[in-house]
Design brief:
The relative contact order is 0.20. Helices cover 72% and strands 0% of the residues. The protein is mostly helical. The longest helix has 25 residues.
């Protein structure tokens, strides 16, 4: 006896769902960034590079994060199209705004680095997950990795790993070793949340 298994077709996100995902996801990410910045720890990607430069130069994260992403937008248009790119530009702008504004709304006197790594990592992971499910990114390094894979055959995962490793290696010249170790814990939390929850077929809706 043969059985036919019906596979549900992906449901398309409504416009208001995409619009709500942007402020919700970016707010969660910005809270994580503020916790990381307060504890003087960092993560990978453009956000990690912006945090590292903030620690090294004193320049505000919001300015650095916004400017560092600018060169990658044309790659996003080529690789992902205008809709994805415009959502990503909006997400980067909102994160820059929220990270700048959050200390004016929330005062943190002191925070344990391990708590910041775990709580901040959870906040960023959940925020990234919310944005990813609505086809939105927050950083250019992942787009660059995908572009290099498509254009030059370099594996995107390895490119991302090499770039993140370079950021953490550079952090050793700016931060004490224990802060770099806590940064690794926070990054592990972020990636664990994404790995456990953002799998093909688990979430079928599309934008």
């Amino acid at each position: 006896m043969s059985h036919t298994i019906s596979v549900p077709m992906p449901q398309k996100h409504r416009l208001y769902e995409d619009l709500l995902a942007l402020p919700l996801g970016t707010l969660m990410i910005s809270i994580g960034v503020v916790l990381f910045a307060k504890a003087t720890i960092l993560t990978g990607g453009v956000a990690g590079l912006a945090l590292l430069l903030q620690f090294a130069t004193g320049t505000e994260f919001s300015i650095l994060f916004f400017l560092l992403n600018l060169p990658f937008y044309w790659l996003a248009v080529m690789r992902m199209g205008w809709s994805f790119t415009l959502r990503t530009v909006a997400a980067v702008a909102l994160i820059s705004l929220f990270v700048w504004a959050t200390p004016k709304w929330l005062s943190i006197e002191a925070i344990a680095p391990l708590y910041a790594a775990i709580a901040g990592g959870c906040a960023m992971g959940l925020g990234l997950l919310a944005l990813a499910r609505h086809r939105t990114a927050i950083g250019g390094l992942n787009i660059l990795a995908l572009y290099l894979q498509e254009r030059h055959g370099l594996r995107a995962g390895w490119v991302q790993l090499v770039v993140d490793a370079a950021i953490f290696a550079a952090a050793l010249f700016v931060l004490p070793l224990d802060k770099v170790a806590m940064s690794a814990v926070g990054t592990l939390v972020i990636n664990a949340i994404l790995a456990m929850n953002h799998k093909p077929g688990r979430y079928m809706a599309v934008s």
